[in-house]
Known about the structure:
three-stranded antiparallel sheet; globular; about 35% helix; about 100 residues; alpha+beta
Amino acid sequence: xxxxxxxxxxxEIDFLIAKIEKKDDAYIFHSTCYIENxxxxxxxxxxxxxxxxxDRDMISTIYIDYxxxxxxxxxKCSGFGETSLEAAMRCFVASKFGDxxxx
Length: 103
């Protein structure tokens, strides 16, 4: 089933990021993404997991007062979210898959 990046749940974005980052053992259980020995992987909410991706891909974020609060962009993408981390990770996933992804 194809879904728009803007409509994905956070755990779905986390799962896609795990796949992009070559974490082939990633799986979803109870709306949470796990990797390597049941370690929670959540770059949409965990800055320690998010910032290396943001820095590497040169994603910038800005607070906006309308629509969804935060916008992120890079040379390849843009994304919106309730938090700067969510917006940046939506942007990152969009840079790899485009506006739609097959789940």
